[in-house]
Structure formats: C-alpha cells, structure tokens
C-alpha cells in the first residue's frame, strides 16, 4: 500500500481506533485538549470484542485498521484500545512507517504512578482489563520496573478480567442494576480480600462504568489513560511541528466496520454532539488491505 502520509500536512486528521465505542473516552479528551485538530474515528465492531480474540487475530485486524488510516492520509494513529496496544503496537508502528502510532499502555502506567504519589506504603494496584490484556500480562510485567525506575516502591499488582463490561458499554448500560450486578460479580472478591489502593481502568470502555466500579471498590482510586494520552498526543504534535493551525472547530468522521443500531445515538450521547452520519468501512474487502 502506498504511504499517503505527508509530514508537512499539518491539516491532516488524526486517526483514533478502538474495537467499539470505548475509544470515545480518549477522543473526548483529545477534542477538549486539541479543539483545532480533525479526527477520523474507526470502530472495528465487526471483529469485536478484541478481548476475546487470539493474539494472531488481534494483530491481523489491527494491521487492517492501520491500513485504513493510511489510506485516509492521517498524520498520527492513536490506539484507544488496550488489547491492540498490548498485542500489536510494535507491528502497527512498523506498518505505519513514518506516521507516529501511540498506544495506551504506557499512559495507563503513568496515570497509576501519578495516583500513587501520596501513598506511604507500596501501592496495591489492580489492573481491570479484557481477557486478552490480562492474559498478555503487559501491565503486570511493566508496572514494577517503571515504578522502580522512577524511585517509587515496587507495587503489588493484581489483575482482573472484566470482559462483560465491554458489552455493557456497547449496549449503553453504563449504570443501573445490571451494571452494578456485573461490577459486584467481578470485583467483590478483590474488595473483600485485598482492596487495591489504585485500579487502572485498562480498557477504554471501562471509564463509562466508573460510578458502578467505584461503588464496588469504594476505597480505591480509579485511573484511566485518557487525559495522559491526550497530553502525549499534544506533546508529539508540538515536537514534530504538526499542530493544525486552522481556526475552525474540529471536523469529525466516524466509521464502523459493521452497521449497528443505535451507534450514532450513543456517539452523540458520549461526545455531546450532533452527527451528520456514521459511515461503513468494509476494511476486509477493500483493495490493498490485508485479508
């Protein structure tokens, strides 16, 4: 595939990807911090949930999504998906060439470090994630070393797969009895045995469930990567001289790989905007994309 990226194209959009609506938590922060930038959002909902897919499948689908963004001439790709970031980030960077690709894992760890600053004892950190991210173990592998490298006590890391949280968010069930029941199902043992000081919401869907997660873990500080990631994007744009200098409001384009009833309404609800439309991206059948 031809690389359509032009480093001089400050007005090029930023691509933001997730397997569904979870990445809108990241896009929301990006719109707040970078209101002059344009964005292309892709939800690969035809292959969701990524958290239940094999590493090979996640890698394959992620690279197809990278190709989609390259065909749109983006100047940066943001992985608003912890599962893809854990499994396929290096492969995506290689595929994208000169286009910077940013994942969420490092920013989740940074957010946890910031949250632990006022603790006297080593932090007890829970990683709440999809099954694939938990099985990959990247947070459990990376957290202790990063804390030690930053002169912080080595934390105690525990992981909990909360896979059904993803579907709750996709269905718009962000609160209420069903969400509370699911949070209690996943988190009651953790709360009763060794309630963590900090919980990383290590899936971009999970911040939508912050209220019910907090109810299940009342003494735990919840952190997510969205704000930290948005600042990282801004810093990279500044360092590369790629800030969009236009004056008008962000142009937003939304694509899904499978038509889904109510998805436009949920996007409008999350971002508090009115949509012109949500477009279908037939990635697997597009010429030049990996099959």
In words, what does this structure look like?
With about 290 residues, the chain is an alpha/beta fold. It has two domains: about 15-105 and about 225-285, Rossmann fold; about 105-225, Rossmann fold (3-Layer(aba) Sandwich). Helices cover about 45% and strands about 15% of the residues. The chain starts with 13 loop residues before the first strand and ends in an 11-residue tail after the last strand. Residues about 1-5 and about 285-290 have low confidence and may be disordered.
Tags for this model:
291 residues; 14% strand; 4-stranded parallel sheet; Rossmann fold; 11 helices; 2 domains; alpha/beta
Distance between the termini: 13 Å
Architecture per CATH nomenclature, i.e. the level-2 architecture of the largest domain? 3-Layer(aba) Sandwich
How would you sum up the global shape? globular
* Alpha-carbon Rg, integer: 19 Å
The secondary-structure class comes to alpha/beta
- Count of discrete domains: 2
Share in helix = 40-55%
Tally of strands: 10
Uncertain spans: 1-5, 285-291
Task: Report the mean per-residue pLDDT as an integer.
Answer: 91
Query: Count the helices. How many?
Result: 11
Instruction: Report the top-level CATH class of the largest domain.
Output: Alpha Beta
Strand order of the largest sheet: 4-3-1-2-9-10
């Amino acid at each position: 595939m031809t690389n359509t990226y032009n480093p001089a194209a400050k007005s090029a959009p930023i691509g933001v990807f997730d397997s569904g609506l979870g990445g809108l938590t990241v896009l929301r922060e990006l719109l707040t911090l970078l209101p002059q930038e344009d964005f292309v959002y892709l939800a690969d909902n035809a292959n969701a949930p990524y958290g239940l897919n094999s590493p090979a499948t996640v890698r394959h689908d992620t690279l197809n999504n990278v190709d989609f963004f390259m065909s749109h001439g983006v100047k940066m790709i943001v992985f608003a998906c912890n599962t893809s970031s854990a499994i396929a980030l290096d492969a995506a960077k290689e595929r994208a060439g000169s286009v910077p690709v940013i994942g969420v894992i490092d920013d989740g760890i940074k957010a946890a470090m910031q949250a632990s600053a006022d603790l006297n004892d080593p932090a007890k950190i829970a990683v709440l994630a999809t099954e694939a991210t938990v099985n990959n173990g990247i947070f459990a592998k990376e957290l202790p070393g990063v804390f030690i490298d930053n002169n912080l006590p080595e934390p105690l890391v525990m992981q909990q797969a909360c896979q059904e949280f993803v579907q709750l968010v996709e269905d718009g069930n962000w609160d209420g009895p069903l969400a509370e029941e699911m949070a209690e199902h996943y988190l009651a043992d953790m709360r009763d045995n060794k309630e963590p000081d900090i919980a990383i919401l290590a899936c971009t869907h999970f911040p939508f469930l912050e209220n019910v997660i907090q109810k299940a873990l009342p003494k735990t500080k919840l952190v997510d990567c969205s704000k930290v990631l948005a600042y990282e994007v801004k810093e990279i744009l500044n360092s590369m001289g790629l800030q969009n200098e236009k004056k008008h409001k962000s142009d937003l384009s939304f694509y899904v790989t499978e038509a889904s009833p109510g998805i436009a309404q949920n996007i409008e609800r999350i971002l508090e905007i009115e949509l012109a439309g949500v477009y279908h991206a037939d990635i697997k059948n597009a010429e030049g994309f990996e099959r």
